[in-house]
Predict the structure.
Amino acid sequence: EDYVLSGFIPGGEESGPGARGFSLGESEMTLSANIDPRFYGQVTFAVSPDNEIGTEEAFFRTTALPRGLTAQAGRFYSALGYVNGQHAHAWDFIDLPLAYQAMFGGQYTTDGAQFKWLAPLDTFVELGVELGNGHAFPGADHGNGVGAWTLFASAGNDIGISASWKAGVSYLSSDAEERGYEEPDATLADVANPTAFSGDSAVWNAYAVYKWAPDGNSRERNLKLQAEYFDRTEDGALSQQNATLGTGVADYRSEQSGWYVQGIYQFIPNWRLGLRYDRLDAGSTRLAFREGLLSAA
């Protein structure tokens, strides 16, 4: 119950080790269909172990655009990073890497539109942009316009008939307005101080993936190596209703990072071994007094 990623402002409900002991985990139901020759629709509902139903994704997509363009709109997992777009049943491990938990509070979902362009090349090259409302962590925009936007690019190719690679970079910019959380009091036990961040949040991501299967037959044996790096800068103001010091506001700036590397080896059909190493760096944090009694502690 006291789990915390030290040095990171918490956000979302998907960060942490999960429930102890046996538990069901999340259940999903996906419905999809071709609406007509030009549009495809999909909706995915998630049922939590507490029997709460949420809409993970609900979007339509069209490929009826010229010159390799694809567009979709609705709610969807962002193309930010490599794992973010995968549903939980497709993960290689039971949980997300720590960098996803710290930077996005789990998976980053956006309500908005996405546009992708596939280059007419022998090598796979894809460029894209997303425009969203910015409600999801690390954003907390309450306006009507574009509160967050993402740029992403990826490339990949085969290495002979047995191997392939893919790499990509992405950038997320989001606005936060009174993004609240509870900060444990430094001196009083069992006391949490309401705290809110307002400002700008920017995240860089880079990833690389290598896959190998003898003669391209991944059913018998295959190997997958992947790594991702995240770098986040947040700049704005931190306000707090402190139980002992009273209300205060301070200028806040943080530069934080995280990464992981993992390998999965399937040695016979249906049996795989995997290992993942995660690391977070709380980085440098600047708190400058503005008004009230809030202290750096």
Q: What stands out?
A: The chain has one helix and twelve strands.
